[in-house]
Amino acid sequence: MKKASSIQVFIFALIAVIALSSLSNQGILFTNHSQNLKKTFDNNSLKKFRTEGNESFMFDGSFITGNKQVASLSSVLKQAGMSNDFFKDTNNAQVLVDGIYVSMLVGGTNAIFSYDSTIRDIIDNTNAIIKKRLSNLDVVVVDVPVNSLDYFVKRCLELSTTKYVEPNYIMIVEGTPNDTNWWRQWGPERIEADRAWSIQSGSGSSVLVAVIDTGIDYNHPDLSSQYVALGYDFENDDNNPMDDHNPGHGTHCAGIITATINNSIGIAGVADIQVMAVKTFDSGGFGSVSNAAQSIVYAVDAGADVLSNSYGFPPATVLRDASIYAIDNDVIVIASAGNDGNTVPNYPAAYPEVISVSATDDSDNLASFSSYGSTIEIAAPGVDIYSCYRVAAGSYGYMSGTSMAGPHVAAVAALVRAEFPSWDVNRVRERLISSVEDLGAAGWDQYFGYGLINAYQAVLQPPSHDLNIELETQSNVEVFTTNILNATVSNWGLSDETDVRVKLFINEAEVASQTYTNLFVDQSETLSYSWEPTSEDTYNITAFAEPVTGETDTENNLVTADVIAAELTNYLMDDSVSYQWIDATSGTLLQLSDDDYEAVPLPFSFEFYDQSFNTLYVSSNGWMSFFNTNPVDYINVNFPSNYSEYSYAVALYWDDLDPASNVYSFTDSEKVVIEYLGIDNYGGAEAGTFELVLYRNGDILFQYDYLTTVDSPTIGLNYGPNTGYYNVYSGISGSTDDLAILFTKIKPNHDLAVDFLFNEESGENFYAEENSINNITTIIENRGLLDESNVELSIFVNNTEVDSQTFPSLLSDEIIEYYYSWIPVSSGLYNITIFVEHVLNEARILNNIEMFYVEVLSPIEEQPPVLNLLTPVGSGNYSGDITISWTGSDPDGDDLTYSIYIKSNDDWIRIFQDLTNTSIIWDTTTVENGDYELKVEANDGMFTTSAQTASPFTIDNPTTKRIGFSLYGTIAISIISIGVIVIFTINSKRKHR
């Protein structure tokens, strides 16, 4: 194709503008590609002029469905001058078009994305636009101008890299749904549910979704054929879960999921599947957490495949257990994130077993009401959603909320289960996540999770070759104990695989591997490894499945996790210690409202079980956490608990309490006190006054001044990652008075620790001077139960050992101080490391080493300022305003101040002082005519430097002045009678160094 000359381009562009203007006035619909063109051409540095005069073209019989323009393939081929039988099966086929552009699919197109010269020529010569790549399918979507279609197709097919070229067909189940209010439903189209139906609509499948809500109006004409009478009403305790909410919250959710498609009335649901109702909430939308938990279990037992939960509670163990029950029985749990517009988590959505859904509007923005945060996994439409109402409430209407977003995801999960019935919950969940449309920041973010749910992408067939690896291990383990690491490889592709190799690494060292001769489709194999960590440390565990031939997407071939190994010890609990109340009301009043918390910084690092913490998160409900930054739960759980939100928890008196602004914190260098003063049970009688004390040495003290009523609180300590480590106190009653409970750590047999002082100071970073003597005080402590012998100490400077010492004996609880004098000979940053060699069978070795940095500076010799007087410098006659100017600098970088003096009759008189600028105007009419000398002084706080005129100069003003001075307020003149009294008021300032 020849390129047009500039004159031809101009004429063609002019005709195009006239044509566009004429057609637009007639109301003809066309789409402007200028933004896409600009992006495509800019990205490829192409400086071509492109005319778009034909963009107003409309293919014969084209029409708009939703936000898509569709045309018959025959009309496209006719316009392109191509034979009707160019593509197979073209009878009545519909294709996606956009103005003059036809959407085409090109298979086997790696070369297109590398832009080799042949592909570049095809793209350039046809003005085609590469739209996107279909991941895992080696396909690109290309918009091709219709008048270049024949050339584009034939040239692409000539390439060895091209497998096929075909139109981007539009497939619609029986055309656009004939439901009368389909046009009101933006949600299903936005998530491409209508496109997904060409692959899987759910029709004919046995997939069952349970709507756990206010019930369902099963007489609704859009739901009656989809409803299965397997539900229950836990609010009224009967088997009739009819929705009595106004206008019908549960019915609205059910309509989003499965309102009958193509029944010529109402709306179309996202999936053509069966639905059951479990009524958990009353007509006002209220229900108990126990009912919710029962509902989940009931739905699982009734055979549901997907649970849709459009509600939220504070965290409750029973709700978590019910969610786990569902997952353990291969049932997918979807839940709405909440409508609080903040990051406060709602449950069950926030539980890790559950898919948490935030809400978007029709512009892909996060809904203003939608909760967000670290637990969000997927986003879905949730604003102005048109769906079913109860028949008595008008049958249809709009609702907004994450309650509407959750059912969209539940319906897509049902489509995936219908298309891939052999997939378990983990694989379905992975498909929902991996098929989303990314919104917001790239990758996961706290507003949209992984992205907006996409039904079409979710039901596409997986690639031919796809291995997935999963790693099973605990996040916290004990040293000297056996732990099992499991690496499970699964064949998620469409082809059976041979010689699949799995490897397991610990800290990048390969520790185990296995080759599986055959791994059939949907089959899994597990490599197990017994591991016994021998020292306290953080270990990186990695499982890797080597990619098989033909596998292109290898992101899920590798998984890694960090595991903390520690020597765990329990606490001794002693309630026989003496009670000595510590008043904390002189400290800080915490601003706690109902079900609230506040972070309290600790004045020292506090070691709790195997971790050190610097912040305590204090709940208004009588418990505290070092790990959970939002401890607001009012429903207490029993210890031990391995749920992460209750790890590293301290329960002083955990119950549903009313703080009434009576919680105080007091800290000093040795302890932290949290006092609950005169606290009531929420909505009930007074509970009492009690306090927590954390001591620097690691001890924990509970004290109870009095308790009047006791309502089954949790009292004790909880580690969490390993349920074998906890303490529970059960001796509390309503008559408890002056009780103290002390928790002290059980000592290990062997435990050495080292600390230091640098020049009698503690910290991490210090300063010193060259050739100065610096004292390093090393403190070695035996914290174990057993005495130790031949304890070896080493001191390193920049990784070079500079001193060592062996102590023949170190008794249990003994502390030894050792002194080393260090003289650095040059400036620079030095690393000082103190290490005490661990003894036999000592597991906790992290406290055997201390490291800090010292910056050594060269000695500084203070230099005087440098000063140079510029004007006036010597003899001459002056009158009126004289500019005095000078330059000044200080070699040490100190700030300078300046003073100005004149000399008359051998006396120096200061006329300006404390100047910071380097010039000033002197009004000479204020002094008597005569000869003067001028001097400037610069002061840096330690030294004063002077500069003065080389010779006297003469002030010769026309009018003779009286004797005396009036110098800018620094010299006050008072003339009394005949005599002249000169009073000097000199401002005295001194710079401190």
For the sheet with most strands, the description reads: 8 strands, antiparallel
Give the N-to-C terminal Cα separation: 82 Å
What is the number of strand segments? 57
By secondary-structure content and strand pairing, the structural class works out as mainly beta
Strand content is: 35-45%
What ranges have pLDDT less than 50 throughout 5 or more consecutive residues?
1-57, 960-993
- Helix proportion range: 10-25%
Question: What would your notes on this structure say?
Answer:
The protein has 993 residues and is mainly beta. It has 14 helices and 57 strands. Strands 25, 26, 31, 32, 33, 34, 35 and 38 form an 8-stranded antiparallel β-sheet that branches. The longest helix has 20 residues, at 6-25. It is globular, with a radius of gyration of 41 Å. The termini are far apart. 38% of the residues are buried. Residues 1-57 and 960-993 have low confidence and may be disordered.
Question: TL;DR of this structure?
Answer:
This protein has 993 residues and is mainly beta.
Secondary structure topology:
Layout: H1 6-25, H2 34-43, E1 63-65, E2 68-72, H3 73-80, E3 94-98, E4 101-107, H4 110-114, H5 117-126, E5 129-134, E6 139-145, H6 149-157, E7 164-167, H7 186-190, H8 193-196, E8 208-213, E9 232-233, H9 249-258, E10 274-279, H10 289-301, E11 306-309, H11 317-328, E12 332-336, E13 355-360, E14 378-381, E15 385-388, E16 396-399, H12 402-419, H13 425-434, H14 455-459, E17 467-472, E18 476-478, E19 483-491, E20 497-506, E21 509-519, E22 524-531, E23 537-545, E24 558-566, E25 571-574, E26 588-589, E27 597-608, E28 611-619, E29 623-625, E30 649-654, E31 657-658, E32 663-667, E33 671-681, E34 686-695, E35 700-707, E36 714-718, E37 726-728, E38 737-745, E39 752-758, E40 765-769, E41 774-782, E42 788-797, E43 800-810, E44 815-822, E45 828-836, E46 849-857, E47 866-871, E48 877-878, E49 881-889, E50 897-904, E51 907-915, E52 919-923, E53 930-939, E54 944-948, E55 953-955, E56 971-976, E57 979-984
Parallel strand pairs: 8-10, 8-11, 9-10, 11-12, 12-13, 13-14, 18-24, 40-46, 48-55
Antiparallel strand pairs: 1-2, 2-3, 3-4, 4-6, 4-7, 5-6, 15-16, 17-19, 19-22, 20-21, 20-23, 23-24, 25-38, 26-32, 27-28, 28-29, 29-30, 30-36, 31-33, 32-33, 33-34, 34-35, 35-38, 36-37, 39-41, 41-44, 42-43, 42-45, 45-46, 47-49, 49-52, 50-51, 50-53, 53-54, 53-55, 56-57
Helix pairs in contact: 5-6, 9-12, 10-11, 12-13
